[in-house]
Batch of 2 targets.
Target 1
Amino acid sequence: MINLAIFIAVVMFLGAIWTVLTEDVFKAIVIFGIVSLMSSVMFLLMQAPDVAITEAAIGSGITTALFIFTYKKMEERKDER
Amino acid sequence: MKDEKSLFINIVALLILSFMAFYIYKVSIDTGSGIKITDSITPKMRVADKYLNKNVLNENSTYKFSQTAEDTSANIVTSVVVDYRLFDTTLEVIVLFVTILGFGFVIPKDKRRVKMPSVILYRWAPILMILMLMIGGYMFINGHLSPGGGFPAGAIISTAVLIGVLAGRKTVNHKTLKVVEAVAGISIFAIGIASFFIKGVFFQNFITGDRIGDLFSGGLIPVFYGLIAFKVAAELSNIYFEFYEEC
Amino acid sequence: MTKVFILSSLSLVFVGLYGVLTRKNIVKILIALNIIETGINMLLVAFGYIEGGLTPILQSDLSIANLDKMVDPVPQALVLTSIVIGLGTTAFALALAMRYKNTHNSISIRATDEEGVNV
Amino acid sequence: MIELLLVPLITTLVLAFFIRYKRITWTLFLAANGFVLYKLYSIYGIWNLSYKVDTAYKILGAELTLGVSNNPIGWYFAFFSALITLLISLFSIGFNKNSRSNVSVIWMLIIFSNLGIFFAQDWVTFFMMWELMGWTSFFAITNGKDKALDGAKYYLALSLFGAALMLIAISVLAQYTGTFQIFASAYGLLQIINSSTKLGIGILLLFLTTFLIKSAIFPFYMWPQKVYSEGPEDYITFMSSVMIKYGIYPMAIFIVPVVGSADLPMILNTGNVLQYTIGYLGAISAILGTILAIFQTDMKKLFAYSSVANMGYILLGFSSMTIVGFEGSLFHVVNHMILKAAIFLTLAAVVFRTGESEMHKLGGLVYRMPLTFMTFLLGIIAAAGIPPLNGFGSKWMIIQALMSKRMVVFAIAMIFASTGAFMYLFRALASIFLGQLPDRYKDVKEVPPTMAIPMFIMMVIMLLTGVVPGVVMKPLTSALKAVGYNVEVASWTTLEGSLKNSVIDLKIVFYMFVAGVIISALMYFFGNKSEKVPQNDNYTAGEYPEEWGVDADRFNYSYAFYQPFKEMFEPLLESVSIDGFFASIGRNFEFLSSTIQGLFKRGEGAVLLFSIGVLLLILGGLII
Amino acid sequence: MNSIVFLVVIPLIAAFLSLFLEKLNKLAMYIVTLFNLIFSITVLMSGNIPFNVAIGGWRAPFGINFVVTDITIYFLLLVNIAALISITVVNNIKEYQFYSFYFVLLAATNGMVLTGDMFNFYLFTELSTFAIAGLVAYKRDRLSTGAALKFLILSSTASLFSLASIGLIYKTLGTLNFADIALKLSKLNQASYNLILILFLSSMLVELKIFPFNLWVVKSYEGSITSVNMFTHGMLGTAGIYGAIRILLIVFPNMYSTNISKVLIILSVFTVLIGEVGALKEKNLVKILAFSSMAQMGVFMFGIALGSFESIKGALYIVVSNYLAKLVMFLVTKQYSNAVESKNYIDMKGLGRKYPILAISFTIAALSLMGMPFFAGFWGKFSIVVSALALGKLSTIGIAILLIASVVEGVYYLRISHTFFAEKDVNSVNISRVYSLIPFVLAAIILAIGIYPNFIEQILWNVIDEIKNAPDKYINIILSLK
C-alpha cells in the first residue's frame, strides 16, 4: 500500500511540475487531468471514496473537459484570424 | 510568451516558496507546549466523534445497524454533508449556480461552426445516455448508503446531456434547463422552509424513524441529494450548451 | 502513510503556487490554481486520515463496533464542497479568459486593461 | 456666552439660503458682525462666563467635555478682530456689488471659528475650531477661481500639516498631564519640561510649529504671498489683518508663559534656548520679509511680505520675555491689524476700480482717488512706525524690551527691518499713487461711499491709536492684570518703556508732527509747479518699445525700483529657498503618485504581491 | 428567533426566481431588500439579542449556527441599508444575471455577518466573491473583463489559503465553530497558532484592501458601474470589516501577543500612504474613490491592530464615517458623471453651482474622511491618535505617517470640491433634484454624528463591551444551548 502511495505521490509531483513548466497548453491540460485522476486514487487510499468519486467526476473529468473546450475555442478564434 | 522565462520572477518565486516551506517546516518541528499541527489527533477528540456515534442530540445514545438512530444515513460523510452541515451544501449549490450564471454571462457569444457528428456516435448516443442516466440515478439514490452522492451523480447525468449535444440529438433545451435549475434550487429551500413551519427549525430532517442501511432511510437525505443532482446536472449541462449549441 | 499523503499534497500546493506566481498565460495560471486546489483538498483529507483507518460508511454491526478506527468524515465533507467550488471558479474564470482573449487580443496576464492599447 | 458662537453659525446657514441675493447676504453679514462686536463689548470684564458641552465621547478613560469661556487675552484679540471685521464687512457691501461669487457664507463660518479659537477653554475645542478655520479659508481663498487654486492648495497643505502636528502635541500632552484644559496643561507642560526636558521641548516645538505656520514665520513665510495675490480682496484684507494673528494668540497664552518660566539652559544669561529660537525665527522673518517685500512688483505680494516682517516683530517682542516686550507685541498685534486692514482696503479699492495689482502698471491715482490715497498714506506711515500714527508705539516698546534684555542682535534686526520698511512702503506709494496717471486710467473714479466710509474710519482709528494708545493699552493692561501678570493699567497717552526714564508722551509727538505737516504743506503750495508730459515719454524717450517686441511697462521706473539692492541680495535669496524645498516635496509626492498608479494599472503582480504579503506576515511571526 | 435564516434564504430564492421575472426583477430587488432591512430592524427592536440559532436543529459546535449579538445586528443593518441605497441607482439594466448576482450578494453578505461557523463563513465569502466578480464584469468590455479576471484569480488564491487554515484549525482543535475555536485556541502551540493566523489573515486582508493584498481594488472600481461600486463598498466591504472584527478580535484575540499585530500596523500604514498618495495625481473620480477607500481601510486596520479598546472604538468610528461618506460620494459621482458623461472630475467643473446640495454633500463626506472636526471621521481619528501615541514607538511613527498622509488626502479631496464650485457656465446639464435627497440625508447624518456623537458613542460602547468580554460572553451565548 505504502509503496503504491509513494509511487503515485512521485508521479503526481512530476506531473504537476511538467504541467507547470511545459510550453504547450494542451499538453499541460492533459497532464493536469492525469494528475487530478491520480489524486482521486490518493483519496481512495485515504479511505475517502466519496471524495474520490467526486474528484474523478468533477475535478478530473469535467474540469479537464472545460479546459479542453476553452482551449479549442481559443484555437478556433486564432484560426479565423 | 517570453516573459515566462524571466529569470528574476522565477528566482523571486522560488525564494518565496522556499521561505514558506522553511516556515512550515519550522512550525512542524516546533517543540513548544500546546497542541501542535503535527500531533496525531483521532476523530475521538473532534466534533466528528459525535457524527460517528450519532449522538449529537443525546449524549448517551448508542445504536445498532438496521435500527433507528438520530441520523439514519449509513454513509457518514453523506450524513455530514446532507444533514449535519446541510446548510453548507446548499450554499455550495448556490456557488455553482452563481459561477455558471457568470460563465453564461461573460462567455463571448459568437457564431460557431457546427460539425456534423459521426454516424456511430449518433446511433449509440441514446444507449450511452440511458447508461449514464442510470448510473447517475443509482448514485444519488444510494448516496446515503454507498460512496457517491449528488455531486458526482449530477456530473454523470450532465455527461449524458453532453453526449446528446455532441451527437447532435435534441434532448433538452435551454429553457428546460433553466426551469430544472430553478425548480431544484427553490425546492431545496422550500423543504428547508417547510421544516421551519413543521418543526420550527430550518433545514431540519423532519422524516425520522427509518432504519440505518435501508434503501429508504436517512429521511430527507435522498430527496436533497436528488435535487442537488438535478441542479448540478442542469448547471453543468448549461456549460456544454454554451460551448456546443448554436445561439 | 499520513506523512506521504501530507508531503505529496504539500508538494502539489507548492508546485501550483510556483505556477501561479511565474506563469503569464491565463489558462496556465488557472491550471496551476487547480493544482493548488487539488493539493489543498488532499491536505484536508490527509488531516483526517488515521493509520489503518476504515471508510466512514456503516455496512454492518461490525463497522459500528469499529467506529474508533474510522477516518474523520468531516474533512471529506468539506473537500466535497471545495471540489465543487473549484469547478465553479475554473468555469467562471475560463469564461472570463475567453472574453479576455476577445477584448485584449492576448491571453497574457500582462496585457494592459487600458482601452485602445494593444500589446 | 454661547450666543456669541451661535449667532455666526445660524447666520451662516441663513446666508447659505440667500446666497444668490448679494444685497441681503452682505447686509446680514454686516449685521451679524455688528452683533458680535456688541456682544463682545458687553462681556468685557465678566471673566467667569463659560459654556460647557458634556459629550458621552470617552477619551483617555474620561468623558470629553468641550467648553468655551471668556478669557481676558482672548477677549482682547476677539474684540479688536471683531472691530476690524465689522469695518471690512461694511466695505464688502460695496465691493461685492459686481462680483460673481459670494464668499460671505464661508467667511461667516470663519468668523465663527475665529471666536471659537479665541474663547476655547480646552485644546480639543481649540483644535476643532482651528481645523474648521483651515479648510474654510481654502474655499474662501479659491472662491471658485482656478488661478487661486495653487496658492490655496499650498496654504491648505501647510495648514493641515500644522493641524496634524498640533493633534499629536495635544494627545501627548493630555497623556502626560491627563487634561485637555489649556491653562492647566500649560502648568503640566512645565512639569514635563522639568522632569524630562526632551519630551517637553518636543511637545512645545510641535505646538510652536503649528502656530508659526499659521502666522507665516520664517520657514513657512511663503504662503501669504501666494494666497494674498489671488484671493478675493476683501477677504484677503480680513486674512492679512485678523487671521494671521491666530498663531499669535495661542503663543501669547501658552508658549510665552511656558517658555518664560521653564528651567532651561541659558544663553549669555539673557534668555533660555527656546527664547533664542523664537527670537531668531522672528528676526529672520523680519529681515527676510522686508528684503523680499522690497523686490515685489505685485502690490499685494509686497504687503504679504510686509505682514511676514510684522509677524517677526511680534515674535521678537515675545522672545524678550519681559512684560514690556509682551505688552508691546500684543499692542503691535492690534496696530498691525488696523494698519494692514487700512492698507489692504485701499489696495482692494484700487483693484476694484482698475482691476490691476501690478504696481508698475499703475501710477498717479492720487488725482483720481484722493481719499484712498490718504488712507494708504496714513497706513504706510503707520507701517513704517513713524510717530504720530499707531505703528510707532508698539515697535518702540519691543525695541525697548529687547535692549533692556541686552538682546542686541534682535534689536539690530528690528531696526534693520524697520528701515527696510521705508523702502518698500515708499515704493508702493510712489508706484501706485504718485507719478503719472496712465492714459487707460483717465476715467477712474473715487470709490463709492459704502467703501469710502470704512476707509475713513480706518484713518481715524489709526490716528487715534497713534496719539491716544490708551484706547488699546488700557484694555490690554487690564486684561493682562486679570490674567495675573504684574502690570499697571496704562494711561491714555503715555507709553512706558522698560529702560530708565523711557516714558514718552505721544501727545507731544503729535503736536510736533502737526507742525511739520503744516510747514511742508506751505512749502508745497508756494513751491514750483511741475510740468506734465505724456507718461510713456518719461521712460521710453519717445521710442516705441513694442516694435522691439518688449512690453513698454517694463521700462516704467517702478518695475525695477530697487535694482541695485536686488543685485546685492540676490545670492542670499537664492540660498534661502524654502519655496524650492516645499515645491520639491510636492513634486516627489506627485512622482510617487504616478508610480503607485502604474503599480495598480497592471494587475499581473497581484498574486506575487499577495505572497510577498504572506511572507511579511510570516517574518513578523518568526521574529518573536 | 429561528426565522433569522430568512435573511439568507429569501434572497437566495429570489436569485432563482430572477431567472424568470424579467421586467419584474427591479421590483423584486426592492421587495427583497426592504424585507431584509425591515426584518433586521424587527430583530433589533425585538429585544431578544443576543441569541443563537442552530440550523437543522444540531446544537452549536456540531451543526451550523447563526449568532446574533450587538455587533452582528448593527452590521446587519449597515449591510442592508447600503443595499437599499445602492439599488436606487440601478436603472436600465435588462440582464437577469445582474439581479441574480445582486440577490446572491445580498444573501452572502447577510450570511457573512450572521454565521458562527468557520467553514460557513468561508463559503459565504466565496459566494460574495463570485457575485462581485460577476457584477464587476457586468459591462463586459476590456476594462471590466480584465478587472474581474484578475480579481477572481487573486481572491481564489486567497480563498485556498483560508481553506488550508480551516483545515489546520480542524486538525488541531477538532472544531469549526467560532466560539468553540475561541474556547480551545489557548491550548494551541504558539507556532501553530501563528501559522493558522497568517494563513487566515492573508485571505482576510484581500477583502480588507490592505496593501500588498489589494491590487484588485482600483481596477475593479474603475471597471464596474456605480451601483456595483456601492455594492463592493457598502455590502462586501462592511461584511469584510465585520469578519475582521469578529475573527481578529473575538476568535483570535491572542493576536496582540504576537508580532503579527505589529506587521499589521506596518502594512496598514503602507496602505494608507499608498492609497492617499496614489490618488493625488488621479483625475478619474472613481479611481480616486477607490484609492481613498483603500486608505480608509488602512486607517481602520491601524486602529484594530493597535488593539486598545479606544483605538478599536476609533476604528469603528472610521468605519461608520467611511461607510456613509463613500455612499454619498458614489451617489454624487453617479449623478455628476452621468450628467457630463465623463468620470474625470475636471469635466464636472461648475456643477456644484447649479446643483449645490450634491456638491455640498460631497464636500461634507470628503471632510469627514479627512477627519475634520464637526464631522464623523474626526472622533475616529482623534481616538486612534490618542491611543496610538500611548502604545510605543512603532505606533507613534505610524500615526505620524498617517497624519501626513491625511494632509495629502485633504489636498486632493478639497481640490475636487473646489472644482465642483468653480466658476463655469453649465446650462446643458440636467439632473433631477430627487437624486439630491439621499446624499443630503447621509451627509446630514455625518454632520450629526460629528457634532453630537453621544448616540453613536452609546452603540459603539455596547460593541466594545462585547469585544471586551469576548470570547467568554460569546462562547456562553453559543455553547450553552444544548
Target 2
Amino acid sequence: MPLILPLLLAVLLFCIGVYGVLARRNAITLLMSFELMLNAVNLNLVAFDAWRLDGLATGQTLAVFVITLAAAEIGLGLAIVLLLFRGHGHVDADAARDLVEQDATEQRKGAAT
Amino acid sequence: MIATAWRVLGVGFSLLVVLTAGLLAGAEPGRSSFLNSSIDGLTLGFAVRTDDLTVLLLAVVGVVATCVQVYSLGYLHERPASYHALVALFTAAMVTVVVADSLFLLLIGWEVMGACSYLLIGHYWERRDARSGAVKAFLMTRLGDVGFLFGIFVLGVGAGTFRISELDPAELSSGVLTTGTLLLLVGVVGKSAQVPLQTWLPDAMPGPSPVSALIHAATMVAAGVFLIARLYDLFAASATTLTVLAIVASVTMLFAALCAMAAVEVKRVLAWSTVSQLAIMFAGLSLGTSDGRHAALFHLVTHAAFKGLLFLCAGVLLHQIGSAAFVVLRRYTRRGRLRKALPVTFATMTVGLAALAGVPGFAGFFSKDTVVEAAWHHAQDGSGLGWVVLVSVCLTAALTAFYCLRLWLWVFFRTPALAGGIGAFEDDDPMADLDEPDTSKLRDAPWVMLSPLVLLAIASVVLGYADGVHLNWVVGLVTTVLVLLGALPAYSLWSRGADPRPVVLEREFGVDPLYHRLFAVPARWLARLTVAGDRDVIGAYVRATGRTGTLVSQGFRRMQTGNVQTYLTAAVVGVVAIAVLAGVIGS
Amino acid sequence: MGESVTLTWTDWQAVAVPLALAIGAVAVLLVDAFWRSATAQLRHTVVTLLTGAVILFGLVFVWAQRDDFKPAFCRPAVEGPAECSLVFEPMTAGLWAVLLIGGLGVVGLSAYRLLASDIPVGEYHFLLLSALSGATVLAGARDLATVVIGLEVVSLPSFAMVALRRDRRGSEGALKAFLVSVLSTAVMLFGISYLYGVTGSLYLTTIANRLAGLDPDLERVAFAAGLFVIVGFAFKIAAVPFHAWLPDTYVGAPVEVTAFLAVVSKSAGVAGLLVLVTTGIAPNGSDLRTVVAVLAAVTMTVGNLAALRQVEAVRLLAWSSIGQVGFLLAPLAVGDAQAVVGYLAAYVVVTLGAFGSVAVVQRHRPGGLLTDYRGMVRSEPGLAVALIFFLVVLAGLPPGLAGLFTKFAAFQAVIDAHLGWLAIVMAINVMIGLAVYLRWVAELFRLPADDPFSVDIESPAVAMISLCAATAAVLSVLPSTMFALAT
Amino acid sequence: MNAILLGILALPLLAALALWALPAAIGDRLAALYGSVVSGLVLAGSLILWPWNDGWFAYTPDERALRAATDVPWIPALGVRFHVAVDSISMPLIVLTALLVFLCCLYSLRITPRIGRTRSLIALLLVIEAGVIGTFSAMDLVLFFLCFEIVLIPMWLVIDIWGDEHDPAGRKRAATTFVLMTVLGSALMLLGFLLVYRQAGTFDIVRLTNAPVLGGHGIPLAAAILIAVGLAVKVPLWPLHIWLPDAHAKAPTVGSVLLAGVLLKLGTYGMIRILLPVLPDATVTIAPYLAGFSTVAIIAGSLACLAQTDVKRLIAYSSVGHMGFIGLGISTLSPAGLRGALFANIAHGIITGLLFFLAGAIKDRHDTSDLRAIGRALYARLPRIGALLTFACLASLGLPGLAGFWGEMLVLLGAYDPSDLLPRTTYLVLMVIAGLGTVLTAAYFLRLVRNLCQGDPAEHPATAFAVDLSRIELITWAPLVALTVLLGVWPGLLLHQWGNL
C-alpha cells in the first residue's frame, strides 16, 4: 500500500477532528473529536513505521503510548465534564462563561457595594 | 539704615574711582592677569591694564558717578538701597570695562552694565513704560552683545589670545580682522544705540533721571566709544569696518538729530541728542587716524560733562514739577514762573544746552570742532570717508543748534506771539482739562542736587580748554555759522508760536513699530506655534501612544469572550497564520 | 536491530529525582487516605512536610550532582553519538532546580490555613508531586516520546488541580485549560508523527543530525512538523495567539493552584521548549527559531498591552505572565539556555511571592480588585513592600535587580544573535510592562485609603512571602547565582 | 579613598532603608533632620574625595586621574563588573548632587509638601542621591545603566505622591510619562551598550576608553545612535523633551530641584563619559545631527518659554534650552565645547535649582504657579524673593559674571571652532542660531520678571499670608547664590579641574 493513502486518511481524520472541536458545542462531542485527532496521529505513526521498516518499531511504540495517553485524557476530560454538568446543569462548552471579565463599570459597582 | 549704608557706599565708591584715577594719573602703564585657565592653548582668564585711556575714562566715570550719587541723595526717595547699590554696581561694571585687558573681563563689565541699566531703567517698575523700556534696552543690547561675543571668538581664536594688549593687527589675517571688528561693531552699535539698534535709548527715559545721566554720560553708551578707542589698532587696520562705522555714524547722527527736533519731552530730546553726539564720536573714530581718535575721546569727555548736566537738570524739572514734557513745562512757563523759580537749574541748563549746541566758548564747541577738523584733514588727504563724515557732522551741528534752542526757548520762555498760551503742544496735553497748576510752591531743588549741576556746568565750560586751545579759526567760523543757521529757524518758529513737527519725524521714521512687527510679533507667533507644536504634535504622539495602548488593551479585553471555542478557533487560526508566516519567512 | 537497553547505576541516578517525586506522590496519597484518625491540622502538616521533604530531597540531589553529566536509557546509535531518552546535565540541573523551587514554593503557599478548606489535601499534594515529576522528566527528556509523556504528566494533574474544588468556577477553568491543552497535544503529536516520518527517529539528537542532511523535498514537511510541535508547546506556555485560556483559568482556579500553573506548569513548558529548540528540532539558523522569535515578540506585546487596563489583581498577573513568557521566549529563540534558566529562576521566585501576597489579600477580600490594595504601604507595610519588590522585579527595574539582570541577559542573547528588531520590541515592552506594574504599585502607595487592607497575616504566608522576598533580594545582589544555574 | 566613595554610595541607601524601618510616626522634622545629617555626611565625603587637577582619565596617561577605584567582578556570566571610580569629570557633578540633596533635606526641615509623609520623601531623596552618585561614578556600562535606572521609580513616586495637590490626574500622568519615556530610552541605551559589548567584549568604560570601538558606520553607528537616543530622552533633547515640562511643573519643589538640577545631567554626563570616548568615530558621524537637534532645542525651548503662563513650566522649558546648549557643546567634540558642556552642567544645576526653589516658594505662597493667578508686582509683596528671582533669572540667561555665562560661552566658542572632523560651516550656522537663542532666553526671562515681579502693586494687593524670605529659605538658597557668583567670577575653579581635556 502506498504511504500516501494512510497519510491522506490521517489528515482527513485530523481535519474532521478539528472541525468537530471548533463546530460542536457539546463537551462530549469535543472529547470524541479529540479522539479522532489522536487516532489520526496513531495512523500516521504506524504508517510511517511500516514505511520505514523501523527495526525499533518506534512508531508503533509511540502509537501505543498515544492510545494510553488518549485514554488518560478522556478519563480526566469526562471527569471535568461531569463536574461541569454538576455545576452548570449542561455540558455546552461555549456556554460556560462565568469567568469572563465583567465589564469595568459593573466591577466598579461591585467594588462600591 | 540699610539704605543709608548703601548711600554711603555708593558715594564712597564713586569717590574711590575718582581717587584711583587721580592716583593712576601719570603713573607708568601696567598690566597684570589673574585667575587664568587654559583651554586648548587658549588662555581664558582675567587681566587688567592701566594706561592713559584708562585713567581718562576712570576720571570721567568717577566724576559723573559721584555727581549722580550725590544728586540721587536728594532726588530719589523710593527704594534707595537697591538703587544706590545698582548704581555702584553699574559704575563698577564700567570701571571693569575700562581697566580690562582681557576680552572676557571686558565682556563681563559690558554685560553687567546692560543688566544694571535694565534694572535701573526699570526702577519705577510700577510704570508700564519703565517696564517695557527696560526690557527693550536689555534685549537690544543683548542682541548686539551676541555679535560682540562672536567677535571676541573670531579675534581671540584668530590671534590665539584673549588679551587685548596682545592682539596685534599685524599678526591677524585681514579676513579675521574684518570679521572680528565688524562683529565687535555689532556689539558697539547695540550698546551705544546707533542705527539700527537705536530705539532702546529714547525708550529708556522712564528710568530715574540720574540713571539716564549716568548711562548717557559716562557708562553704557560711552563704553562703545571706549571699546573702539581701546581696540583702535584693530579697527584702524580694517578699512571695511571703518567704512561701515562711518556710514553708521553718519546715518545715526542725522537720524537722531532729526528725531530730536520733533521730540516733545525734554528727556527724549536729550536721549536723541546723545545718540547723535555718540555718532559724532564714532565718526571721529571712523577716520582711522590718531587725530580722529583724539577728537572722539575729547568729545566723549566734554559730552560726559554737558550731557550729565543736562539730564540732571531734566531730573530737577521732573523732581520739582513731576514731568519733563514740554506741554507741562509750558503751563509754568507761560506765567513766566519756571525760569524764576528754578534759577540755578535754568542757568546750568543753559550752559549745558550751549555746550551741546556748540556755542563758541563752551566745551562742546571745541570738541566738536576737533572732530570736524580731523575729518577735514582726513578729507584733504583724499579720503571720501573724510568728506562724508565732514558733511554729516556739519549738518548735525546745525540741526543740534536747532533742537537745543527749540528746547531752551519753549521750556523757559514765554512766547509773545502766544500771549501766554501753551502753544503747539496742546494736542497731546494729558492735563488739558485740569486746572492751572499751583505755581506758588515751585522752587529750586535742594543744594545736594544743585551742587552737582554747578560742578558739571563749570566742567562744561572749562573742559573745552583742558586740552589746550588750538583752534582752527576756519573750522570754528564755519561751525559757528552753521550753529547760527540752525538756531535762526528755531527762534523764528518759536517767536511765531509755531512748532511744526513732521509726522515722519514725530514717529521717529516708524522704526519702532517696524521692529515690533518684524521681530516681536513673529517671535510671539513662533512661541505660540512652538507651544502648540509641543502640545498638538509631539505631545499628541505621546498621548496617542498612551491612548492606543489603552484602546488596544480594551480590545484585548473584549476579545476575551469567555467562550472556549472562540479561543480554540483563534488558536487554530493562529496555527495557520504562523504556518503562512513561516512560509513567507522560509521562502 | 539495536542492542537491548540495560539499566545502569547512572540511569538510576539520572531518574532519581522524578522517581522520588513519583514515589512521594503515592506516599502522600496513601498517608492522607489511610490516616483518617489524625486531626485535619496534623494531617495537613504531615502531608506538607512530606511533600516538602521529597522536593527538598530532589533539590539536594540536584545540588550534589549539578556539574555531572548523566545520560540515561541510552543505546548506541546507528550513526553519531549514543541516543539517550533522558539526560541529566547542567542545563537539566538548572531547570530542575527552578522547577523544584517552584514546587516547594507552591507547597509552602498551600500550608495549613492557607489552602482553601474545601480542597482535599492528599489529592492536592499528590497531584502537585505528580506534575512535578512530569515536569522534571520533561526538562530532562531527549526523545519525543518522553517529551510527550512528560508533558502530559505535567498537564493532566494541573487540570485536576484547577477543578479540585469542584465548584462552578474551577470546573469551567479546568475545562478551558483542558480543551485547549488537548487540542495542542493533538497538534503536537501530529507534528511529531511527521517528524518521525521524515527522520525515522524520535531521539532529539538523531533528529537534529538527520534534519541537517534532509532531502530538500522533505525539508518543508520537516519544517511544518517542527512548527506543529512548537505550536503544541506554545499552547502550553500560553504564547499568543494560544493564550486565551490562561486568564480565565487563572481566575477560575484557587490562588494556590494559579500560582502552581504560573510557576511549575509554565516553567515545565518553557523547559520542554528549551530542550526541543536547543537540542533537537530547531538548530541554530533554523527558520523555526525565527518563528519562536516572532511568537516572543507578539506574546510579550499582547500580554503587556492586555495587562495594561486590568482591574483585577489575578487577571493582571495572568496577562503579565503572558508578557513574561514573551520575554522568556526571546532568549529561547536564540537558544541561550543560560539566559532562559536565569530568567525562569527570577520569574519563579517573584511570581510565587506575588501570588502569595495576592492569596493573602484575596482570602480576606475575595473581590480581588487592584483597588483593594490601596494604601497598603501604610496599613500593611511589610506585605506591601514585599509585593512592590516582586512587582518591580517583574518590571525589571531597580531595586528589582534580579528582574533587571535577567531581562538584561535576554537582551544580550538577542543582540548576540543579531535579532535587532526583537531587541527593539523588547525595549518597547519593557516600557509597557513598567506601565502595567506601576499602576498596581501606585495603588499600594495611594494615601489616604478609605478602607485600608489590614489583617493578621497567617504566619506560614509571612514565612513564604518573606522567603520569596529574601531570595529575590539575594538574587538581586548576587545575580550570578541565577546564571550559575545553567552553565 | 575608595572607602569614601563606597561610603557615599552606600550611606544614602542604607540610611533610606533605616529611615523606612523607623516607625511612620516619627515627626517630619526629625526625618528631615536625619536626612540633612546623612546628606551632609555625603556632601562632606564627596568634598574630601574631590581630586584636584587630575583631569579626565581619557586624556591622561596611565589612568592617573582615576581615583577611588573599586573593581570587583559581579556577574561573570554576563561580563558585568562592579567598577566604580571618580575623576574630575564626575567629581563636580557628584558634589553638586550631594549639595542639592543636602539643601533639599535642609529645606524640608521647615517646608514640606502639603501631603506630608516627609519620612518617605526624605528616604526617596536619599535613594535618588545614591543612584545619581552611582551613575556618576560607574565605570562599567551595565553599572551605569543600573544606577541610571535606580533613580526612576523613586522620582516617579516623588512626582506621583507629592506632586501638585490640585491636579492628581495631571501629576499622575506627568509622573508616568516621565518614567515610561525614560525607561524606553534607557532600554534603547542598553541595546547600544550590548552592541558595544558585542564589538569590544567588555563593559568596562576604562578599558573601552583605552581601546575604543572604532568605525563610524554599521554596528558602532547603531550603538552610538541607540545610546544617544537613550541619553537624549534624559537630557532631554528636542523632540524627546515632552515629558519634561509636565514632570517639572507637577513635581514638588524638592523634586523639581533634583529633577532639573541633577537628573538631567545624567544624560549629558553619559554622552561625555560614554559616547565620546567609547564610540569616537560613530560619534563624529552623529555629532552634527546631535548639534542640530540641540540647536532646535535651544530655540524651541526658548520660544515655548515665551508663551508659558505657569512659572514652573516656564522654568522647566528653560531647561530644555539650556540643556540644548550642553548638547551643542558636547557635539562640537572640541575641548572648549566639552568644557563648556561640563561647566554648564554644573551651572545649570545650581541656577535652575535656585530657580525651582524660588518657583516653589512663590507657588507655596500663592497656592498656584499660574502667573495670571499669582498676579504681578511681586517686588512690592515679596521684595526679597522677587529680587532673588530676578538674580536667578539674570544668572540663568547667561549674564557674564554669573555662573550661567561661562558654560554657554564656551559652548559657542566650541561651536565656532569645532573638532577638525566636523563640518565647520554647519557649526557656524548653529552657533549663530544658538547665539540668537541667548537673546530669546533673555527675552523670556525678562518677560517672566516683568509679568511676575514688576507691575502696579495697587492692582495686585498682597495676600495676608505672604511672608517674605524665611530663614530656612535664606539658609538653603544662600549657597546656591554664592556659588553662582563665585563660579561666575572665577570659572577657573572648575575649568582647572579639566586640565588636560
